[in-house]
Amino acid sequence: MLKEMIYASIGLATITREKAEEVISELVKKGEMTQEEGKDVLGTLMKKAKEENEKLKQKIKEQVDSAVASLDIVTRTEFDEAIKRISELEKELAQIKEEMESQKKNK
Predict the structure, then answer these.
(1) d(Cα 15, Cα 101) in Å, to the nearest integer?
(2) Of 53, 57, 82, 92, which one's alpha carbon is 20 to 30 angstroms from that of 42?
(3) Averaged pLDDT for residues 95-106
(4) CA–CA separation, 30 vs 51, rounded Å?
(5) How far is 100 from 13, CA to CA, in rounded Å?
(6) Residue 69: CA count within 13 A, CB half-sphere
(7) Could you tell me which residues come within 8 angstroms of residue 53 by beta carbon, excluding any fewer than 6 positions away?
(8) Which pLDDT band holds residue 15 (cuts at 50, 70, 90)?
(9) In Å, what is the CA distance from 81 to each residue of 22, 40, 58?
(10) Could you tell me the pTM of the whole model?
(11) Rounded Cα–Cα distance for residues 9 and 46 (Å)
């Protein structure tokens, strides 16, 4: 479902650009807008479309994060942090074992 929403937003942006270009082209042909004005309008529209797309991505991310949190699932970041901590503890434990063995040998 998430992929479909993303694909839909990308498709909508593409269709919007094509349609905007058609409309602007017609306005330029009719003399209601200069070529330069058309470029400015298209640039503004595309900038707004990109901003809206980013907002949509953020909303989707928030929804996914919320769903993951409600399911009480460990995130990748939390998992990676736990692996790192375990690795650090293993090193500390190995060091303590070495020290203990060294003390035994010295007795």
Answers:
(1) 71
(2) 57
(3) 90
(4) 30
(5) 65
(6) 6
(7) 9, 10, 13
(8) low
(9) 51, 47, 24
(10) 0.48
(11) 13
Write down how long the chain is: 107
Residue boundaries of the structural domains of the chain: 1-73, 74-107
Q: What is the rounded distance in angstroms from the CA atom of residue 101 to the CA atom of residue 94?
A: 11
Question: Which one, of 24, 16, 20, 18, lies nearest residue 53 by Cα?
Answer: 16
Residue labelled with tokens 């017609």: 26
Given the structure tokens 């070529």, which residue do they identify? Answer: 35
